[in-house]
Amino acid sequence: MQQLLLVNVVFQWTKCLTVNKNKMATIKIKQVRSTIKRPARQKATIKALGFSRLNQVIEKEATPQILGMIKKVEHLVEVVE
To answer: Per the structure, how many domains does the chain have?
Structure first.
């Protein structure tokens, strides 16, 4: 019985991974404030998001990691519709 449940759970998990893999939402982010006189961690986060200049708009997948990075520098960026 446990093996049957384990196989069923593994099957559902792989099915979930393959279905959600292609449906990742994307968001557009625009840098609106400079990183001059900001802490090094915020500068590194902006660079990790892919920004290289002000008013640049980039498109990223809305993963939890990216959303967390946006939250850390929300005073420097804005989400564009």
So the answer is: 1
